[in-house]
Amino acid sequence: MQNLTIVMYHYVRPLAGSRYPELKALELDNFRGQLAYIDKHHTVIDMEQLIAALGPEAVPLPDNPLLLTFDDGYMDHIDHVLPLLSSRGWQGSFFPPACSVIDRRVLDVNKLHFVLASVADPDILVRYVFDAMDEARELHGLEPNEAMFARIAHDSRYDDPGTTFVKRALQRELPEAFRKSLVDALFSRHVSSDEQDFAAELYMGESELTRLLDAGMFIGSHGCQHYWLNSLERQAQIEEIDDSLAFLERLGVSRKEWVMCYPYGGYDESLLGILRSRGCALGLTTEVKVANLDQCDPLTLPRLDTNDLPMSASTPRRQPHITV
Ligand SMILES: [Zn+2]
């Protein structure tokens, strides 16, 4: 059985002493430690090797292969990740949503991360959402506050119930225009009133992405607007994919062997059909597992989160999760 560990990263930065020390990010020193652990127990592979392994030629991979993936196109990736990977001669695969690069807008999900990092007590945000729901209940036909809280504020791997409620209410549950207006208000109140400026600090632009490519890194699609793609109608799915492919092409990424990374891990059969029709080689989900390459569907590969792996080379090797 050929196993493959794919690790998923988001923010990677020196948190201590930074402007947002409470941001749910991977501390840079822990990233260094994790790379040392990986160096000891795995062989880091390139995306091109994985495509060849899962293609018709089935080119074998080295023992204990591991692929490094970085979602959302943060400046963290060029400032902190690229130098560390380059010094080891390793490739990382990067998945920026096209709109944050092109339009210099801050994604709602990122606005929320920085709101949560800026407000120490999540109950303040829960109360803010409750008050807004009270005002808009009739207009949008909203359920009672406590009922929604009980329904959505549980089963999170990392967050307390209040934070889970705020995230889910403002990312998915409330009607789109309403929740966007709440996120915008919270962001300008607690984080920044200059979204363009903030976006320029947060996300890589085209020149940074070109530098990644020049350094031998891989760049794939993470959609355009960072939607839950399984929540869209087919035509909107097609537009998201085609817009992101046009963006990749402009960067100079080959369309022959392109890779999809589903925002929030969201996909459905309709989307997989669209990807197949456009020659997508691989798809990365957020299902938390080590992949078994003998049995997996190349378009729905599972990944581990960085928190599933040790952060130090001195930690004994452990098998984090069962394989699919
Ligand atoms: Zn993402």
Automatic annotation (TrEMBL):
Which residues, if any, are the signal sequence? none
Q: Which CDD domains match?
A: CE4_DAC_u2_5s
What are the alphabetically sorted keywords of the record?
Signal
Going by the entry's taxonomy, the superkingdom of the source organism is recorded as Bacteria
Per the database record, which ranges form the NodB homology domain? 206-279
Can you say where in the cell this protein is located?
Secreted
The answer to keyword Signal applying to this record is yes
Q: Does the keyword Ribosomal protein apply?
A: no
Q: Which InterPro entries match?
A: Glyco_hydro/deAcase_b/a-brl, NODB_dom, Polysacch_Deacetylase
What Pfam family does this protein match (any one)?
Answer: Polysacc_deac_1
Q: What is its main location?
A: secreted
- The protein here is known as Polysaccharide deacetylase
Q: Which organism is it from?
A: Halomonas marinisediminis
